[in-house]
Amino acid sequence: MVVRRAGERSARSDGQPTGERLSDGRPDPQRGGATVVLLAMGLVFVVFGTFGAAVVSAGMAKQRAAVAADLGALAGAARVFDGDAAVCASASDIAGRNDGRLVGCHLDGLDVLVTVEVAFTPLPGLTRVAAATARAGPVRG
């Protein structure tokens, strides 16, 4: 009769271990527990990383919309004497080149007021829109 202490590995006839067993012969119920904890921690990191990427994506889209609106307003202001249609066409062209969509264009005297939207996907299957408005015109003193 072979006597084993708790926690000792027993060997099969070919020399390979048979696994952890308690002193009464039952399998150790805590074997593999670290794997489950490690997988849970990995899942938490993935969830927080995905959330962080979505927040960064939203911030970048807002910045892209602001840049597209600023450049569109400046392009429109350069053509202010050509009329409302030429101003908005120029602003729309520049906004489109910056991955934006012109949703509002208004000529207020010599000022051009432009609103641009930029679509972004923070998570797969979820599309959102970031909008920004800009004004351009002559300096008033």
Q: Can you describe what's shown?
A:
There is one protein chain. The chain is built from 2 helices and 3 strands; from the N terminus they run ααβββ. It is of the alpha+beta class. The chain has one domain (33-136). It has a 3-stranded antiparallel β-sheet with strand order 1-2-3. The mean pLDDT is 86.
Kindly give the count of domains.
Answer: 1
Category from helices, strands and their pairing: alpha+beta
Spans of at least 5 consecutive residues with low confidence: none
**Cα end-to-end separation:** 103 Å
| Largest sheet: spatial strand order | 1-2-3
Rough outline: rod-shaped
Count of discrete alpha- or pi-helical segments spanning 4 or more residues: 2
Helices and strands, in N-to-C order? HHEEE
In angstroms, what is the radius of gyration? Answer: 32 Å
Measured by DSSP, the beta-strand proportion falls in 15-25%
Helicity, as a percent range: 40-55%
* Mean pLDDT across residues: 86
